[in-house]
Amino acid sequence: MSAPVKAGPPEFRADGGTRAGRLRAGWQKHRFWLMAGAAFVVVTGAGLILGTAGQRSAGELSITNPAPDGAQAAATVLAGQGVDVTATDSLAATTTALAANGPGSSTVLVFDPQQLLSPEQGARLAASAAEHGSKIVAIAPGPLMVGKLSGELASAGSVSTGSEGVPANCAQPDALAAGSIIVPGTAGASSGTEAKVYRGPASCFAPSGEAGGAGVLAATADGGVCVVGSAGVLSNDALARAGNAALTFRLLGSRDHLVWYTASAKDIPVAAQPPSLAELTPPWVFPATAWLLLVGVLGMLWRGRRDGPLVLEPLPVIVKASETVTGRARLYQDAKAVDTAARTLQRATLNRLAHALRLGGAAAPDAVVAAVSAHLGRDRRQLFALLVHNVPRNEKEMLTMATLLAALEEEVAQR
Fold first, then answer.
1. Are residues 153 and 250 located together in one domain of the fold?
2. Is the residue at 35 inside a domain?
């Protein structure tokens, strides 16, 4: 007889299998979300890279915007002709730049498409420009802003413009050099071809064609303040049309420094102290809250009383053994825990064989294997491999092992 095979007690694990198996199961279960997250990261990163490439701006009349409504072309040409072009986005930065450039050396372009500047801020800008001898070119300013920039200028509403050139019809030098311009209109107007017109000592490019009438360009007597009624005149799309380029470069390039000021949210004044919660709360909130609180208290007093002590009633739950076995098997199957299920089958078979051979429930696996081998006359190594040692690698092998275990129990019972 061959020597008995000694082995330690089997290791029982209910953690769902090996580490590799758990990783494989986790990948199969969550692979869609992992792939979707990876794709989101890649797309977001590519968008950030493309969005920040070249530090381009998509704002209207921005000097870094190459789109049709941008002004990169005008700024690039002016910079190429020796004009120092500086972009600012707040009134404080603009006044600082005017002071740094020195007296009489700056032109400041003011563009406020969202009407963020208050009339008081317009007056401060005009005072700073006058203090430093700077020239102001305002693009499509509102009526109140025009009056604060200069008392000589006034808004005259807006008119429809066409695709034909509008002649200067005035004696202003910059307008005479341009001859005629194409006025594309103001972006965001109710009509796509509307432009603002102004009156002043020099009113040029009147859409009506009348000399001295309200025009797209108006300037003070000394030329220190000029207003242009359409941002499209300076845009990339219209710069090369008619005399738009000549007018743009003469208005903006007559001095060494050009401060390109586009108003932004930084110009919105901030309150000295933030408003309190009471100031932000509507006046009806407190009476309504008090009324709801009173109704809630009355409701609790009305319906919240107890009718008596609680009564405990036992409710036993009976579950069939077959349902328990089926539920546990499905848990093992969902977790891909083939090894845990196999160990459970082997332990149960050893326990039933021990009772069948009258060894007792505490018998060691080696003793049960030896008793079965002696009882059936079968090889102990094969029985030990089936009952203790072997662990199936997949569900197919586990089903084969379960069939062999059932056949072994039946064979022992029949003998």
1. yes
2. no
Tokens at 137, concatenated: 């070119």
Q: What is the pLDDT of residues 152-174, one digit of tens each?
A: 999 999 888 767 788 998 989 99
Give the side-chain half-sphere CA count within 13 A for 227.
34
| Inside any domain, residue 126 | yes
At residue 52, φ and ψ (nearest 5 deg) are -100, 0
Phi/psi at 101 (5° precision): -75, -15
Residue 327: CA count within 13 A, CB half-sphere: 6
Q: Domain residues for 154?
A: 72-267
The three-class DSSP label of residue 261 is strand
**pTM, full prediction:** 0.55
Cα distances from 347 to residues 296, 353, 361, 363, in angstroms, run 61, 10, 11, 11
Indicate if 166 and 228 belong to the same structural domain.
Answer: yes
The string of pLDDT tens digits covering residues 32-45 is: 888 888 888 888 88
The domain boundary, picked from 267, 302, 326, lies at 267
In this structure, the chain runs to a length of 415
Residue 87's nearest CA partner among 61, 68, 67, 105 is 61
| Residue pLDDT, tens place only, 90-113 | 999 999 999 999 899 999 999 999
Residue pair 385/346 in contact by the 8 Å Cβ criterion: no
Count of domains in the chain? 2
Check: CB of residue 93 under 8 Å from CB of residue 259. Answer: no
Kindly state the DSSP code that residue 111 receives in the 8-state scheme: E
- Give residue 57's pLDDT: 60
Q: Decide which of 252, 267, 282 is a domain's last residue.
A: 267
